[in-house]
Amino acid sequence: MSDLSHVDESGAVRMVDVGAKPLSRRRAVARATVRMAPATAARLGALPKGDALTTAQLAGIMAAKRTSDLIPLCHPLPLSVVDVRLTVVAGGVEVEAVAETTARTGVEMEALMAVSVAALTVYDMAKAVDKEMSITDVTLVEKTKEVVCAPPS
Amino acid sequence: MSDLSHVDESGAVRMVDVGAKPLSRRRAVARATVRMAPATAARLGALPKGDALTTAQLAGIMAAKRTSDLIPLCHPLPLSVVDVRLTVVAGGVEVEAVAETTARTGVEMEALMAVSVAALTVYDMAKAVDKEMSITDVTLVEKTKEVVCAPPS
Amino acid sequence: MSDLSHVDESGAVRMVDVGAKPLSRRRAVARATVRMAPATAARLGALPKGDALTTAQLAGIMAAKRTSDLIPLCHPLPLSVVDVRLTVVAGGVEVEAVAETTARTGVEMEALMAVSVAALTVYDMAKAVDKEMSITDVTLVEKTKEVVCAPPS
Amino acid sequence: MSDLSHVDESGAVRMVDVGAKPLSRRRAVARATVRMAPATAARLGALPKGDALTTAQLAGIMAAKRTSDLIPLCHPLPLSVVDVRLTVVAGGVEVEAVAETTARTGVEMEALMAVSVAALTVYDMAKAVDKEMSITDVTLVEKTKEVVCAPPS
Amino acid sequence: MSDLSHVDESGAVRMVDVGAKPLSRRRAVARATVRMAPATAARLGALPKGDALTTAQLAGIMAAKRTSDLIPLCHPLPLSVVDVRLTVVAGGVEVEAVAETTARTGVEMEALMAVSVAALTVYDMAKAVDKEMSITDVTLVEKTKEVVCAPPS
Amino acid sequence: MSDLSHVDESGAVRMVDVGAKPLSRRRAVARATVRMAPATAARLGALPKGDALTTAQLAGIMAAKRTSDLIPLCHPLPLSVVDVRLTVVAGGVEVEAVAETTARTGVEMEALMAVSVAALTVYDMAKAVDKEMSITDVTLVEKTKEVVCAPPS
């Protein structure tokens, strides 16, 4: 019935026990797109100092660090790096985030949180001039790991 | 050049000053969709107690209360209610959030944060069985206000 | 079936909508007891500067301010005062907290959170010397309000 | 005078230095009881989907992850699992939490925080129908460790 | 003995009760200086996009919003605006923050927190190239208020 | 152009990738001074129980644990100890903080955050009686490390 990993057979939610998993170096890459009127996108890209994009980039990095505070069943992870990039394209902004850790569980929720909050921050910065934006295609595009240490036995 | 409300003429970012705006009763409604394999969606909806959906609902409500911690230029707001609903449909989950406040600035970022974090929580709960999910169409569907009090003069 | 105020008829959880309630000045008082060996209690009370108690007092005040971050369906409240007092008695420490606000909903969870976290902090300070402590009788002892402003109509 | 571990000889508070302790796999189990009228307990247990209990369970898990933010002298710990269970009994709800980590210091405060906040959340959900609840017997019932790694020398 | 407002006659700390104070529109301005080698300052000012300064500016704004989480006896305040400006000068960076609210207590700690965290962020960005920086002259330069509403009586 | 470690060649901000650095035992010591009227300092030092200083000490310890939440590009670190000491001198209070960790990156921002927030807390406690205080000489006075473990290769 349930291989949904966070719900046990009685239907109760639970945090997956990762205590016996090996320490691995883990990496995840996520993407999202903020769709907006081309005129809005053009203006975002023409700001003298790019600060709207920097604001979104920083918001994404800071949100990644708080993923386990926000997603109820996520484990706290010692992130070794979070990198968020925003690219203005015709009709929108593309957001990509890389998150890495050496831990017992994956880092994809951190990458997804980073792109989501960066996208919401772009939305917040531009909402006064564009009422029709949307955030789409929030997806995981890469997830890898490499065991660095045997599990505690 | 810039009517992007959070970037001033020199390109510096800024929090909009809402001190002179009237206190209004404000309401915003946002939506998002988590797309997944029909088999995943069917299972989410058939869990004995629906707890995966409750988890996402609570995560959305709690995230709404932390919007001003996450979106750099958002004002803290005294939310009077946040309501998050998830509906399992063929091929996914639809998330809708209502946020209301009596404040000097709008509550749309709180509603958008609620649906985004609720959607990410669904993703987290189901990611062990479905590697191809995505979150789409994060949009604001309603925003209203009603002045309840003249501004401080 | 359900007048449990945070669960609706379908069983879904919800934050109560307080937007139409009047602004009232509200006050709540809560208490808790940390039970411990008399020898532990005697030592807590004989510390040169009372700092273990001050630590617990501050932890309680700070936790009260974060109640809406911790209790999923609590509303954020603008606390006007939180006062936490600890008294060493034979066999333990009594904790009392007063919380006050001018808001649309009650402040009892803030007072209860304050005494709970203050009690847990006493436990943390003394656990190296006493393995048999417990926290009991966490209760609300007073709850009052006084309407100061008609509701927005 | 003081083997209270968090207070030094001058009476000043301090965080215990755990840098030289070995990395151990650690586990703690805590319990608490929410006492309420039998009629309230019966209703909590008869809700169509058990969501009041799920809400409390999630609140407890999330609070455990924030223990070092709330208890002033606690160390941040990489929790590998937190499990919170609530059982409706005659006259109340019993809460049990298990917390585990691989770290240099114990995880009992995390387990105690989980049961305390889960109990407070039950209180919050039911307070509209029962004004006489109390939380009692917050206790540690098990604490174990197993060294997995020699300390840094 | 003590007109230190947060310590009562018995020496116990306390949060000042502001419940009976009038709602006033309040404003505070604070400043700080980060001293560094002229070569470091020159480089900070010559970055292609000014992003190190934007990062510090945003960190200051976000920290202001969390003042009551960090300063134990501060009241939570609904900030209506926080504005942080950084100016590169010979030998350093000058930071100025303005914070405003309509509340029952002053907003100076928010302005001081903003400049302190902005200054620490400049330090963090430049510490790889300059080991001799310091932060000085963290001061309040203006504090005003204007009553907008009689107190609740 | 830029060896400012958090700004890349295009001017974009970034979190430094520490994933390939060795695990080291790291220690940092920071200091700050709160300058005030001698009469204020005398009173702080003559309080019956020293609680104003304990409050500042605890605020510093707790803030150190939240450094990565506040400084945008800081990594989360598992602090093994934070020690904050305040000394009343003629004309002010001297604050010193020690922070230690076993991690892949340094702990100086944690020590600097601890002294800054402890100093701001002294300011908050005494501001009702002294309007002319300032915080100066926030500096790093020691930074050491010792490799305990080869990097993951």
TrEMBL record, chains A, B, C, D, E, F:
Keyword list, A-Z: Lyase, Molybdenum cofactor biosynthesis
Keyword field contains Hydrolase: no
Biological process annotations from GO: Mo-molybdopterin cofactor biosynthetic process
PANTHER family in the cross-refs: MOLYBDOPTERIN COFACTOR SYNTHESIS PROTEIN A
Ranges annotated as spanning the membrane: none
Pfam family, one: MoaC
GO MF, one example: cyclic pyranopterin monophosphate synthase activity
Name the UniProt record assigns to this protein: cyclic pyranopterin monophosphate synthase
